[in-house]
Amino acid sequence: MTLPVDSTIVGDLSMRLPLVCVFLILAVTSALAQVDRSKKPEPGPTPQVKLPKLEHAQLTNGLHVVMVEQRQMPVIQLQLVIQTGSAADPKGKPGVAYVTAQMISEGTKTRLSLQIADDFDFIGAQYGASANEDGSFVTLLTLAEHFTKALAFFSDVLLNPVFPQSEYARVQKRIVTSLLQNKDQPEFVAGNVFSKMLYGEGHPYGEPVGGTETSVKSITTDDLRTFYDAYYRPNNATLIAVGDIHPKEVVAELEKVFGAWEKRDVPATTIPPSPAAAGPVIYIVDKPKAAQSQFRIGEIGLNRASDDYYRTLVLNQLLGGSFNSRINWKLREEKGYTYGARSAFSYRKEAGPFVVSAGVKTSVTDSSVILTLDELKRIRTELVPEKELSVAKSAIIRGLPRGFETVSDIARQITALVLYNLPDDYYSHIVENVEKVTAEDVQKAAQRYIHPDTDAVVIVGDVSAVKAPLEKLGYGKIVVVDDQGKPVK
Question: In what order do the strands lie in the sheet with 338-345?
Fold first, then answer.
């Protein structure tokens, strides 16, 4: 039934609506005008973190299985974690682990590359593979109703890759083209050169995970097969299953498709000791007429197993872990030099880097570097005020629930447990471990892991504009290098 409409009301509203809109706009504008942007916003209430229960099983061939029953949505995420990554790349051939992961879906003993892609697409499944320094990862997201079929496709890719030369030529060309394009991205170049300068030639953490255009061109299908045969073994892997599952049924299905996967002894991956700091040095990669400079400042930090993990987590949050952190506040909010500055500890099986990164206007490159170094010095010498410390810890804790919103998020969190041998109840203790970090803990961690007087500084920018002002800083010697970190004469 249609209700009658009083035309006088409609007409009255049509006259009043513009006035109401104007009033609301003025009210909102007035409220915004009263916001004091020089003061950091107060944090909201700390949310409760609900963590999933993990269930474990082991197949007859030694494949470890970790499961989380999360049945709110009819989807299932599988993630295979191989405990070997680019740190095991053959010397002189960075990129083998990454390219191997890319190639396992490009043809099996019974299916061609195009058929594999079509099979996944037909059932709406999403497949992916990648690698980092510490591991290789193969993922599948599928509707629960198609799980059995998707699992058959997934296991075929994992157990029966043939690395066809015809497909490799295409994949190799795609990767090389992407790497060449990345050389025009200052952020990419700065990150690669920074790692090279920190760890030196030949150290696996100093090499790009995805390789270089030269190394990828040199990688053969024999290299990929050798890496796969050595490291893609059930006793070197964990399979994570999250979503609309019944754990006992999943284990039975996994045994059917993975039971024949042959276990073997896996070569140990030996990562050499981290070199001593060679700084203070400023390395500049020339980008003629660049309007901005990308800079990286930092050093080698700590590994994931360190007892100082939570102390450095809070330390980093204070320095550059959020919008309100000290370095971003200084360079962006106070000075207007950048759209954003951040810092991070990269926690790996062995000591990963600590780095501060930002893109700044060319004319303020030197000022940005010195202001960043000043903030690194300040956190070593001055105790953090209790209110600032409380805000930083609260930000870490409030961010925890975001890591468990989807089945893919949960699988990623479990991957960290698996890769770094963390206990099942790790996430249950994050809040208490973060909250007990004191200002004295932060200062001690800063004094142990942050050394602004010997940090490496990498800048990708216009040498003709930035070199002379940087020399006036007197920080250390300045070396102009190419995009591979080689000195330029």
Answer: 338-345, 353-361, 292-300, 456-461, 281-286, 477-481
Tally of CB atoms within 10 A around 123: 14
Burial category of 408 from C-beta neighbours within 10 Å (exposed 0-12, middle 13-18, buried 19 and up): middle
In 3D space, the residue among 76, 81, 69 whose CA is nearest the CA of residue 141 turns out to be: 76
User: Which residue type occupies 353?
Assistant: P
Q: Give Cα separations from 294 to 188, 448, 451 (angstroms).
A: 10, 26, 21
pLDDT digits (tens, 9 = 90+) for 341-370: 999 999 999 999 999 999 999 999 999 999
Q: How many CB atoms lie within 10 A of CB 40?
A: 15
Q: Three-class SS of residue 295?
A: strand
Q: How many helices (H) and strands (E) does the chain have?
A: 17, 12
- Rounded CA-CA distance 288/306 in Å is 42
Report whether 127 contacts 157 (CB < 8 A): yes
pLDDT in tens, 302-311: 999 999 999 9
Q: What region, left, alpha or beta, does residue 124 occupy, with left being phi > 0 and alpha being psi -120 to 50 degrees?
A: left
What is the C-alpha separation between 477 and 470, in angstroms, rounded?
10
pLDDT above 80 for 281: yes
Token pair for residue 306?
A: 């360190």
Nearby residues of 362 by Cβ (< 8 Å), 6 or more positions away: 290, 291, 292, 293, 461, 462, 465, 466
d(CA 489, CA 476): 18
Whether the CB-CB separation of 82 and 137 falls below 8 Å is answered with yes
**Model confidence, pTM:** 0.88
- Whether 52 contacts 410, CB under 8 Å: yes
**Looking at residues 26-40, what average pLDDT do you find?**
52
Q: 3-state class of 340 per DSSP? A: strand
Strand, helix or coil at 266? coil
Walk me through the domains of the chain, giving residue ranges and CATH numbers: 55-258 (3.30.830.10), 281-481 (3.30.830.10)
pLDDT of res. 440: 99
